[in-house]
Design a protein that fits this description.
This protein is α+β, with helices and mostly antiparallel strands and 478 residues long. The protein is built from 18 helices and 23 strands. The strands form 6 sheets. Strands 3-2-4-1-10-9-11 form a 7-stranded antiparallel sheet. The radius of gyration is 23 Å and the shape is globular. The chain starts with 9 loop residues before the first strand and ends with a helix. 53% of the residues are buried.
């Protein structure tokens, strides 16, 4: 809608020692993770080895209604998913959980990330007779695990074997007839944590805020490369065959993706954004009357800028929370009006003042230009834009929907050119050096490939979003 970075996916899973209403717990967990994906959602329930599921396009409260949750029933395990498509187009077939039934029993799988060799894996499987129903890379993961399950003694061994071939980013939850398993790629690109409730239930989630939503206590993060198995009796077992690589958490989790109240790898997201704003104030000071943030991820950084600079913080925009992410405008005039519908400046905050506006990123520059125009129309005397991340100069291959270079404004213009394009009085981006420092005391290193073009692993040569939907003739050319 606004040419901004899209969220990723969110996963949630729960194992209860008793047959209880785990579906509702999963529902609340997904509701807490709704910010990570608004295209589709779903829940799979394990009732004494029988897996029932429901998934569809739409938001959690609209899709997973009370009637549908009641039909799923009660059980001792459940996994859920909210999705934004980084690979695979928007259609119901790509909604998760994926539920697989094979000779060694049923399996439900949910996934956050992007498997960079999914196309090669899928083509290999299809040439051997495999049939795929959707266009997401998650199906390739599920098929690989299923193949290995036929040759190994347990589902966790199948996952361990599959990780030898999977490349890229994946935080996955797998629910079999008797076990709940969490696994994270060896570089730890995407977050995944574990918690525990007062009744002994084990919970896994993309972010700690989902644990809080059901009253679970945070236990720890799943290590990069680790597989954690919850047995049928609730016992925990860790497999670390693929551990040992240098961690490479996506730094944009702290800049934008994660909820401010989440704690990831030992660092509070809210505090990280405050630090980003403080670094911005040190790098790009300016004489101004008020600091405002662009809702929502720019707010904490704006507060950090204000505290560090001594410039008063103000509420500059009111955000309309009732516009769905599927609100699409076919004409330029409607797109212009959409900005005004979603964000409206508070004139008393900005009129006649020199304004510092803090946002999390600039992608194409279209959105930023429209927001600046709103401030000018509201009477702002000057607008100085500060960005709490470095310029995007490369695409992301590991689960973030960052555009190709030809659509990134920082690849087409220098700093002064961007400043003129979005019509601000001054412009400053957070440096790569300082973005690595925003998550104080984090137990990880960071991937900054979208800011530097240097990735922790070799990126694929090409990864079109519709790579599984290419016409047959185009595939033959490959």
């Amino acid at each position: 809608m606004f040419n901004q970075i899209k969220e990723e996916c969110g996963v949630f899973g729960i194992f209860s020692p008793n047959a209880v209403d785990v579906v509702n717990s999963c529902y609340y967990g997904l509701y807490a993770l709704q910010h990570r994906g608004q295209e589709s959602c779903g829940i799979a329930l394990n009732d004494r080895g029988v897996i029932r599921h429901y998934r569809d396009l739409g938001l959690v409260p609209d899709t997973l209604t009370a009637e549908r949750l009641e039909k799923l029933g009660k059980g001792h395990m459940a996994v859920g998913h909210v999705r934004y498509s980084t690979t695979g187009n928007l259609n119901r077939s790509n909604a998760q959980p994926l539920v697989i039934k094979h000779v060694k029993g049923p399996m439900a799988l949910v996934h956050n990330g992007n498997v960079t060799n999914a196309y090669e894996l899928r083509r290999e499987f299809e040439l051997k007779g495999a049939i795929f129903h959707g266009t997401s890379d998650t199906e390739a993961i599920a098929y690989l695990i299923t193949l290995n399950r036929l040759k190994t003694g347990s589902i966790e061994q199948a996952i361990e074997k599959s990780m030898e071939r999977l490349q890229g980013a994946y935080s996955i939850l797998v629910m079999s007839a008797q076990k709940l398993i969490a696994a994270r790629d060896p570089h730890g690109f995407r977050p995944l944590c574990m918690g525990k409730t007062s009744d002994g239930s084990i919970v896994f989630a993309s972010e700690s805020c989902a644990l809080d939503s059901i009253g679970a206590q945070f236990v720890r993060d799943i290590e990069p490369g680790e597989i954690v198995v919850v047995g049928k009796d609730g016992s925990l077992h860790s497999i670390k065959t693929h551990c040992g690589n240098k961690s490479s958490m996506c730094v944009f989790e702290f800049v934008y993706f994660a909820r401010p109240d989440s704690v990831i790898e030992g660092a509070c997201v809210h505090e990280a954004r405050l630090r980003a704003g403080a670094f911005l104030a040190q790098e790009y000071p300016v004489d101004a009357d008020v600091v405002i943030g662009v809702p929502n991820s720019g707010l904490d950084a704006a507060l950090g800028y204000s505290r560090e600079s001594g410039i008063p913080y103000g509420v500059g925009f009111v955000k309309n929370s009732y516009i769905g992410r599927s609100f699409i405008q076919p004409t330029q005039g409607q797109r212009e009006n959409a900005v005004k519908i979603k964000l409206n400046p508070i004139k008393s905050t900005v009129a006649g003042k020199r304004v510092v506006m803090v946002d999390d990123s600039i992608v194409r520059g279209t959105t930023s230009g429209r927001i600046v125009k709103l401030l000018r129309e509201a009477g702002a005397k000057e607008v100085h834009m500060r960005v709490s991340s470095p310029p995007f100069v490369s695409p992301c291959y590991f689960g973030t929907d960052i555009d190709s270079k030809e659509n990134l404004i920082a690849c087409q213009m220098d700093l002064e050119g961007i400043r003129r394009h979005i019509e601000v009085d001054s412009l400053g981006y957070l440096s790569v050096e300082n973005v690595k420092k925003i998550a104080k005391n984090a137990h990880c290193n960071f991937c900054t490939g979208c800011f530097t073009g240097k990735y922790p692993v070799t990126p694929p040569k090409e990864t079109p979003k519709d790579k599984f939907e290419m016409p047959l003739l185009d595939q033959k050319k490959k």
